[in-house]
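Quick start: read one record
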Amino acid sequence: MVYTRKNVSKLTATERRRFVAAMLEIKRRGEYDEFVRMHIEYYVADGDRSLRAAHMTPSFLPWHRQFLLELERALRRVDSSVSVPYWDWTRQRSPSSAPWTADLLGGNGRRSDRQVMTGPFAYTHGQWTIKVGVTEGGYLTRDLGRRQAPFELPTRHELDSALADPVYDSSPWNSTTTKGFRNKLEGWGRGSGSGAWRNHNRVHRWVGGAMLGGASVNDPVFWLHHAFVDLQWSRWRQRHHGAPYLPARPPGPHDDQHGRIVARHERMPPWSVTPAELEDHSRIYRYA
């Protein structure tokens, strides 16, 4: 049965409660921390010579689509009514709006150490201890908007500029790529400061705290953010008449990206699924 992912601002009180309860349950079971470990493992940078599957690569979007599906399957084993809502950061732009409410994800971190003190994922409530990370500290942290050097979330215009590009991705297929929808959405730019981070990347930096780096899955907002990013891939394909994932074929043996990126019909680790098989999600879920 096809299920629906809703805008987080449209969830009913019951839907919020059930989503939170399912998240806390897979955390209690130890399943959630495996998602954190997986993301850390596949958070590979341009400078590494190994395969990049999750970031700085064409498979950024299908990899995270499959990642979301795996999380959703875990949640739905707990409660079959649950799906991951999406956070439209072009509209819900305030630290006091959804999803930062006490009955959902909780609010900002306190000034002294950025520790989140409100909501069901606060360390003080005893159900969300950070066990897998790249830094020490057992509590969830946030610095919404970055108090020391404030900047804004991406705007609708910035997102539309990515959606307007008719090509999925282009050579050199990494963080320096200037043409193509994928990197304009993923958001690797040039220069310094917040201007170097666009769309997806700037949202991670706006949230701050645990959302920075490979262990960003430790903040449940990771999933709501990536559900919205996933929605943009759907919208892009609708706008550009089902334009395909690129590259269609692996780079040749003399290409610097040979063996370092996933082509359209190649298997994406750690799963046995290809980007081509993930382009159409209409038989699994839809967006409201």
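The chain is about 30% helix and 0% strand.
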